[in-house]
Design a protein that fits this description.
3 strands, 37% helix, 25% strand
Amino acid sequence: LDWVARERGLTLAFADDDVAAAANATVLGGTTERLTVDEALDAVLPTCRLSYRIDEGTLVIGAAP
């Protein structure tokens, strides 16, 4: 998530403390090497039960609906 925010020139934020804790506790394997930044978000976040939105220069990570 830090990489995505940096690549897109965004600030990273979490919807709430529970989402931040879940994201920080998640360990992923594999690579996103052949994916664009947006493709990586779309591929990875649903597997972690997370979603995202971009709001006024901030990448906001939330719980998946």
